[in-house]
């Protein structure tokens, strides 16, 4: 029995604090037990837009963009749209001076619809279909990051004017992250291997295509990387390749893109990407390596996705069912799950969860929080402390849910995808509406 168990006032005051570093910068706990974001009550958002609902703290997104620009003033910051993209998000990062990484004809279409400057678009993907390439070329995207021999040929056939390209390299560097999001190691499906010489061969092939103008090299080590040393090693290897390009082919490449993958914490005390360390160490490593090889220093590019939008997002669910199961666990089932957040099922990700919208006067006890879908892996939190009296109808808020949630959402069990609502300055603006049964049936034409 803790002191908080004995003193209800202490208990409710402890519960009325938000875990540091996990919530959007404008998030506040109200005495009533509600949480506000951008000055808007999440309980009101749930009442107005229904649940589940994703909210986005746009001040948080802007602050993250600014901190990247401030930390790396000489670098290009490209927001990885795969983390979350809609027209408003594209406009937001555009206003903050970032470029935008797009991965498909669909993402190109959203960027175009938002009026995003085409020259600041970077097209990625290990498979770019002819439709993706045509959409990118029609839009006039600034750069295409080539990922395969097939793509060199396809792009060269389609391009009607010189297209600026980079080559994606697999540098053989481990980002020490989950295997499902590790991309920089030998054997990865992404890019051209540095070790086997495939990357250097790809450079020669691109140089032989008059329609393609090689401007740089790219690598992306993976996602949820906390440390800087893998980026230093990648800088070392990639600079060696730039030097080899200079020696062999007499070319000077102006850009080195080190990708994204900067981690955010998903739980109290969890590590986050060391941006100050990156800022201190990587540009120095780049300068030293270039000097050692006697080549001009290329401009650095980074591509954070999650680190820009992850912490700006909170998802609000409603509790539907509370069960006590055979092994004694309390299972709390909510009205969303793997259709709005597949990360637990994909990588075993777990989240902090909080009851909002009412005062908490009882003890906190461990609970397992699950989704509504027909998979046992549809499990959001295990052994999370939640009030003993959680019941159907309560609201649950899940922070750190701005990245790879809505963008990875599905219609599993034919549940319509949740809306996204921007919260700022006391206003709630719907960015993406809830998907309806009509939407679902419109595609079902058989
Ligand atoms: C090429 C590339 N750049 C950037 C990113 C963004 O990664 P993160 O959101 O972890 O920063 C990804 C993610 O898959 C990627 O594939």
Summarize the structure in words.
The structure is a single chain. This protein is α/β, with parallel strands linked by helices. The chain has 14 helices and 21 strands. Strands 4, 14, 15, 16, 17, 18, 19, 20 and 21 form a nine-stranded mixed β-sheet that branches. A hairpin with a 2-residue loop joins strand 2 and strand 3 (40-41). Helix 6 runs parallel beside helix 7 (130-139) and helix 10 packs parallel to helix 11. It is globular and about 75 Å long. The N and C termini lie far apart (61 Å). The mean pLDDT is 95. Bound molecules: pyridoxal-5'-phosphate.
Q: Averaging pLDDT over every residue, what do you get?
A: 95
- Identify every distinct bound molecule in the structure, by name, code or SMILES: pyridoxal-5'-phosphate
Note the beta-strand portion. Answer: 15-25%
Number of helices: 14
End-to-end separation: 61 Å
Uncertain parts? none
Compile the SSE list and pairings.
Layout: H1 3-6, H2 8-15, E1 28-29, E2 35-37, E3 40-41, H3 42-49, E4 53-57, H4 58-71, E5 76-80, H5 87-95, E6 99-102, H6 105-113, E7 121-123, H7 130-139, E8 143-146, H8 149-158, E9 163-170, E10 192-193, H9 198-207, E11 212-218, H10 229-249, E12 255-257, H11 275-293, E13 299-302, H12 306-309, E14 313-324, E15 330-334, H13 343-347, E16 354-356, E17 364-370, E18 379-387, E19 395-398, E20 420-424, E21 427-432, H14 437-443
Parallel strand pairs: 4-20, 5-6, 5-13, 6-7, 7-8, 8-9, 9-10, 9-11, 11-12, 12-13, 15-17
Antiparallel strand pairs: 1-2, 2-3, 4-14, 14-15, 14-19, 16-19, 17-18, 20-21
This protein binds pyridoxal-5'-phosphate.
């Amino acid at each position: 029995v803790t002191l908080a168990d004995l003193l209800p006032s202490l208990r409710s005051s402890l519960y009325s604090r938000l875990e540091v570093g996990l919530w959007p910068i404008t998030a506040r706990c109200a005495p009533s037990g509600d949480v506000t974001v951008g000055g808007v009550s999440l309980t009101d958002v749930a009442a107005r837009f229904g649940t589940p609902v994703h909210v986005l703290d746009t001040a948080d997104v802007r602050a993250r963009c600014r901190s990247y620009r401030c930390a790396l003033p000489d670098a290009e910051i490209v927001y990885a749209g795969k983390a979350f993209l809609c027209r408003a998000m594209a406009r937001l990062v555009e206003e903050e001076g970032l470029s935008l990484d797009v991965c498909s004809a669909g993402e190109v279409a959203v960027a175009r619809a938002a009026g995003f400057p085409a020259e600041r678009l970077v097209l990625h993907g290990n498979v770019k279909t002819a439709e993706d390439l045509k959409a990118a070329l029609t839009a006039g995207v600034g750069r295409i990051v080539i990922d395969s021999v097939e793509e060199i040929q396809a792009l060269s056939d389609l391009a009607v004017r010189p297209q600026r390209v980079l080559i994606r390299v697999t540098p053989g560097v481990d980002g020490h992250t989950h295997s499902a999001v590790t991309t920089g190691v030998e054997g990865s499906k992404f890019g051209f291997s540095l070790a086997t010489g495939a990357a250097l061969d790809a450079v020669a092939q691109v140089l032989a295509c008059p329609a393609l103008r090689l401007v740089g090299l790219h690598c992306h080590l993976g996602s949820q990387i906390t440390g800087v040393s893998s980026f230093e090693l990648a800088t070392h290897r990639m600079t060696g390749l730039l030097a080899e390009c200079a020696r062999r082919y007499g070319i000077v490449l102006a850009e080195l893109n080190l990708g994204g993958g900067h981690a955010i914490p998903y739980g109290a005390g969890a590590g986050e990407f060391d941006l100050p360390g990156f800022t201190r160490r990587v540009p120095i490593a780049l300068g030293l390596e270039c000097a050692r090889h006697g080549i001009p220093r290329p401009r650095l590019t980074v591509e954070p996705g999650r680190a820009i939008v992850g912490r700006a997002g909170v998802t609000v669910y409603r509790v539907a069912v509370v069960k006590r199961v055979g092994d004694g666990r309390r299972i709390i089932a909510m009205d969303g799950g793997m259709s709005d957040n597949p990360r637990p099922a994909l990588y075993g990700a777990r989240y902090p969860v909080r009851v909002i919208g009412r005062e908490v006067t009882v003890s906190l006890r461990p609970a397992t929080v699950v989704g509504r879908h027909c998979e046992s892996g549809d499990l959001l939190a295990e052994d999370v402390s939640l009030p003993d009296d959680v019941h159907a109808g309560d609201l649950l808020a899940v922070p750190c849910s701005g990245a790879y949630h809505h963008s990875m959402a599905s219609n599993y069990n034919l549940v319509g995808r949740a809306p996204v609502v921007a919260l700022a300055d006391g206003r709630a603006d719907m960015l993406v509406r809830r998907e309806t049964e009509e939407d679902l049936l419109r595609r079902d034409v058989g």
